[in-house]
Amino acid sequence: MVARTLLSRIRPLAARARLFSRTYHSYDHPPPPGPFSSTESSILSASLPHIPSHGFTLTSLSLGAKDAGYIDASTNLFPQGPFALVRYHLMTQRLGLAEKTDSLETAEGAKPMGTGAKVKKLTWERLMGNKEVVHRWQEALALMAQPSNVPTSLKELAALSDEIWFLSGDTSVDTSWYTKRASLSTIYAATELFMTTDKSPDYADTREFLDRRFRDVQIVGGAMGSVGQWVGFTASAGLNVLRSKGVRI
Amino acid sequence: MASRLALRPLLRAAKPQFQATQVHRCFTSTTRRAESPSQSTNHERTTHFGFETVAEAEKEARVAGVFSNVAASYDTMNDFMSLGIHRLWKDHFVRSINPGSSSTIPSSGWTMLDIAGGTGDIAFRLLDHCTDINNSPQSTITISDINPSMLAEGKKRSLQTSYANSPRINWLVANAEHLDTVESNSVDLYTVAFGIRNFTNKEKALREAYRVLKPGGVFACLEFSGVTNPLFDAVYKRWSFGAIPLIGQLVAGDRASYQYLVESIEKFPKQEEFRDMIKDAGFVVPGKGWEDLTGGIAAIHKGIKPVEKA
Ligand SMILES: C[S@@+](CC[C@H](N)C(=O)[O-])C[C@H]1O[C@@H](n2cnc3c(N)ncnc32)[C@H](O)[C@@H]1O
């Protein structure tokens, strides 16, 4: 019951997000996605290319402001400082996933991908979205772990799980809805952290790590939707996720 | 008990004396303003002076009078009105702006303008932050006030700081509504702390702020505001309306001036309303547009002048 109400609230949101990301790529000047105004978006998107060399810092934000025609003082537009960059990165990467669903189509005549395989594939795509900034990702994690940023960070993580399941065509409305999302959140956060230390070519180790996590939880294709497990998960998910993100609690 | 008894004659004496000073100051501060506010004619534009409604021209003169009277004992009174925390607010205000920050080394330096800068309180803090935190000794500031005696007080104080006779500080006597000598698009940061509620035409001052700021420049205002918790509001009003003018009388010997200060705070637009005024002047605001301090006794409002798309 609760699941259904929540679902009906989240689904339209996800649908809208997909709509946004579609228009995003079809126009030169996209409508501002999510919580950012068009002025903020123009500065933030100009800041993204500076992250690989300057990190998730005020410097990247200042440089982006300059590229967008603004000045150093304009960073006052972002009361949360460089966390705005983290949030913008997370959001645009999440919304960008809708563009990647082409890779889920199989050749004509071949067996179509199952939901589980699609979830795996999209999770991998999302992780690869961090490739350019992975050597700076610890900075992002530290910002996400700041008490005032934790709620937003967790919400964004939940939204990512939801988006992945949604794009994979999951239509279940039972209690497994929660389990699936909680489990995916945990897996994603752990793998993302693992990736920051991975030096193997093409992130082969990360790939393996991810596969192992999926096997551990057996959520993909299987039904581990027992209520007891779900309660355990939700109770500890937030904490675990945070711990895996490097918060000492 | 004993103290209350001791205060009673003072309280009783306060009312008539209040009127006496009022008339006295009207005569002294400007000879044009001999008539009392109630006689102002219909075709004169009126504005608020505390809870009284007065002609606009007269308000300017009266505000100047208030601050001339208050200048010397100004800090003591600020302490009473802010429950002793205005210094913390000012520190926070400056830190939140992060003046002098730069993506280049060395910093190119910010050009700053502190309006209603009176005693230099905000300006010295801004310069300190530029120098100590952001390694930007290139940053400069113009301290502007309508009242020469407030500026004189500030100059005197600057001698006690590391900015004595510094070329980084300019002094400018000007009405915030007509910053004629300040060039358009020339300023990185415009600050006004505990000043804007005294302006006769706040919209006009905001338009001037917009004009002088560079595209991307920041308008930042620290001002007494609307206490958000009703209980706290009642308590604070009791304190400010009851105690402050009385203390003003004891400390500064000028009850009327403090009566005005307290009433002007109450009259000042509340957070949302002021945010909308800032937007109406053309600024984009960060987040919801303001930050409450100490339950809303004061608030920081900001706006950024957008860059015109080519
Ligand atoms: C309460 S003091 C604030 C001083 C200082 N900014 C601070 O925070 O301590 C208000 C100042 O506003 C100035 N003022 C009042 N009306 C003004 C106007 N129209 N233009 C410029 N300054 C004005 C007064 O002269 C006075 O110095």
Architecture blueprint of SSEs:
The complex is a heterodimer of chains A (249) and B (310).
Chain A: H1 2-26, H2 38-47, H3 51-54, H4 58-67, H5 83-96, H6 115-128, H7 137-144, H8 150-167, H9 176-195, H10 204-217, H11 227-244
Chain B: H1 2-29, E1 46-49, E2 52-55, H2 56-70, H3 74-81, H4 86-97, E3 111-115, H5 121-133, E4 140-145, H6 148-158, E5 169-173, E6 187-193, H7 202-212, E7 213-224, H8 230-252, H9 255-267, H10 271-280, E8 290-293, E9 298-304
Parallel strand pairs in B: 3-4, 3-6, 4-5, 6-7
Antiparallel strand pairs in B: 1-2, 7-9, 8-9
The structure holds S-adenosylmethionine.
The site of S-adenosylmethionine (SAM) has 21 residues of chain B, from helix 2 and helix 5.
Written account of the structure:
The complex is a heterodimer of chains A (249) and B (310). Chain A is globular. Chain A has 249 residues and is an all-alpha fold. Chain A has a single domain, classed as Tetracycline Repressor, domain 2 (Orthogonal Bundle), CATH 1.10.357. Chain A is built from eleven helices and no strands. Chain B is an alpha/beta fold and 310 residues long. Chain B has a domain of 193 residues: Vaccinia Virus protein VP39 (Rossmann fold). Chain B is built from ten helices and nine strands. A seven-stranded mixed sheet of chain B has the order 5-4-3-6-7-9-8, with helices on both faces. In chain B, α5 links the parallel β3 and β4. In chain B, α2 packs across α9, α4 crosses α5 and α8 runs antiparallel to α9. The longest helix of chain B is centred in the N-terminal third of the chain and has 28 residues. Chain B starts with a helix and ends in a 6-residue tail after the last strand. In chain B, 45% of the residues are buried. The N terminus of chain B is likely disordered. At the A-B interface, α4 of A face β7 of B. S-adenosylmethionine binds next to α2 and α5 of chain B. Chain A: Belongs to the COQ9 family. Chain A: It holds the Pfam family COQ9.
